[in-house]
Design a protein that fits this description.
The chain is of the alpha/beta class and 520 residues long. The chain is built from 20 helices and 20 strands.
């Protein structure tokens, strides 16, 4: 996990690194080097770049980046928000170095400055936004807002230095005019605007570059929010033993489905198998068994007493008895909210002694009664979308979306469960207050059934023996990574969620392919 820092913590991290022997000018040079390396890697054909620099250290990063670009044969055209003579400290040193490199620094404050910027952008391959960094605490206005408007209006690809100008490092809110970046190179650690929406949308592709601040320093200053990294998930997915058999790989019960919603049960079970579960049995109303077996012969079924196509209240005791032979359960997709079904779900929640992931109608069964889930006798993962979270919290969707961090943490504390608050930038919260932000995913996931696939994936990891938090982290990360793989072919719409389930092992393979286990 990498800590997600706010502005004051990042300032303290810089100071701690400087006390540890790294000169502030070296930190700025490291930041500029990281920016240029990422830009050249992602956009190798760029030959003419406009660099727009603000008055502070972020502007100094941009000035250093312009010099480094010029040193690599790229034509760097530099604009400064004010007069370059006003720079102080390390930024002033980099202004002097840029001039020594024969770079012209054109102030946007001079007559016709914004017009010259627009003309230069139109004649460029792309731009670097180095106007404002982590120190910004209010919306932009005046000349700064006008410069941002030009950057956005001309429509060239923009790479942001640390964060798009106009965003706050301390919030996912949009304060006012801000740069729409195509790529953001975050220095040292991600900031809140890099992981929380809607600000995250302005950042484009985000990459974090080490600038010389150690993980020990970042860890000491970290709050409760972290971002999941590929290595975190990779470590949770060891290679299987050569003599592994299906019983070693987890027995998962999928309690799902009702008349008209059999597909939810099938998708959940399919995803569980694709995520590596050794044995998957679908517990469903008895009239649905044939449809499940026909669609997914790899899964077993067990039919239970039903009423009008949904599990009856009498099924609860039998469900609990059957679960004794399983390692984990995935409960809720497509179950419906008939009174009998809710009673059966309550029985399972109260009495089943195995880890459980609850989604959809499992969550709806406890709307307004979330505290009852704290009595679960075994680890629990809940996967609400904002609407389900709102019902559990007796809140509105607007309340949840206005402060997703708070909503996820609150629901986790109230239920004693690991909570996955789904949505762009899904959050994984634990009762001790920790929250992890997931970096994977695409708009492809905004389609029916993607939540059922996630439930099956998390269920498979629970059944394999992973603790609740780790199962949630692995499931959410790979679910998003699978969508990213599919987006290469499909773009941002048109997903059939069976394809998402089928892409899960490919995403897992891509994540672990460089593992030194001696296999091809």
């Amino acid at each position: 996990m990498i800590p997600v820092l706010g502005s004051s913590a990042m300032k303290a991290a810089d100071a701690a690194a400087i006390r540890g022997g790294i000169a502030s000018l070296e930190l700025m040079e490291n930041a500029a080097t990281g920016l240029v390396e990422e830009l050249r890697s992602r956009y190798p054909g760029w030959n003419r770049v406009v660099v727009v620099c603000g008055p502070g250290n972020n502007g100094g990063d941009g000035l250093a980046a312009a010099r480094l670009l010029a040193g690599r044969g790229v034509k760097a055209v530099v604009f400064t928000l004010g007069d370059a003579a006003a720079y102080r400290g390390d930024a002033a040193e980099n202004a002097a170095r840029a001039r020594a490199y024969a770079l012209e620094l054109t102030p946007l404050s001079q007559r016709g400055g914004r017009g010259r910027l627009a003309s230069a952008l139109a004649d460029s391959d792309g731009a670097v936004d180095a106007l404002f960094g982590t120190g910004l605490s209010r919306g932009l206005s005046g000349a700064a807002a006008a410069a941002v408007a030009v950057l956005n209006r001309v429509g060239r690809t923009v790479v942001a230095a640390d964060l798009p100008s106009g965003l706050s490092a301390d919030s996912g809110a949009i304060l006012g005019p801000c740069v729409r970046a195509d790529m953001t190179v975050a220095f040292g650690a991600p900031k809140l605007c890099h992981v929380l929406f809607p600000a995250r949308q302005q950042c484009g592709y985000v990459v974090v570059r080490d600038i010389g601040i150690t993980r020990q320093i970042l860890g000491r200053l970290a709050g409760k929010l972290e971002q999941v990294e590929a290595d975190d998930v990779r470590k949770l997915l060891p290679a299987r033993a050569l003599d592994a058999h299906k019983g070693d790989c987890g027995r998962l019960a999928v309690i799902a489905g009702s008349r008209g919603k059999t597909g939810a049960a099938i998708l959940c079970a399919r995803a569980a198998l694709r995520s590596g579960a050794g044995l998957v049995t679908v517990f469903c109303p008895e009239s649905l068994e044939e449809a499940v077996v026909t669609a997914l012969p790899e899964a077993m079924t067990r039919g239970f007493e039903e009423k009008r196509g949904a599990l009856s209240g009498k099924a609860g005791r039998a469900l609990v008895e059957e679960l004794a032979g399983f390692d984990a359960a995935a409960v809720g997709p497509g179950l419906g909210t008939a009174a009998g079904t809710i009673a059966a779900v309550e029985d399972v929640a109260r009495r089943a002694p195995i880890p459980l992931v609850g989604d959809a109608d499992f969550l709806n069964a406890f709307a307004g009664r979330a505290a009852l889930l704290a009595r679960r006798p075994a680890p629990t993962v809940l996967t609400p979308h904002p609407g389900e979270a709102a019902r559990l919290l007796d809140a509105t969707i607007r309340d949840v979306q206005a402060d997703r961090l708070r909503a996820a943490a609150s629901l986790s504390r109230r239920t004693g469960a690991v909570v996955v608050l789904k949505g762009a930038g899904s959050l994984i919260a634990t009762p001790d207050g920790r929250v992890a932000a997931n970096p994977t995913g695409t708009p492809l996931l905004a389609t029916a059934g993607s939540g059922d696939v996630l439930t099956g994936a998390i269920g498979a990891f629970l059944a394999s023996g992973l603790p609740a938090r780790e199962a949630a982290l692995a499931g959410v990360y790979l679910h998003g990574a699978a969508a990213e793989r599919l987006s290469i072919r499909l773009g941002d719409a048109g997903l059939l969620t069976a394809d998402l389930a089928d892409a899960l092992p490919l995403a897992r393979r891509a994540l672990t392919r460089d593992r030194a286990d001696g296999r091809p």
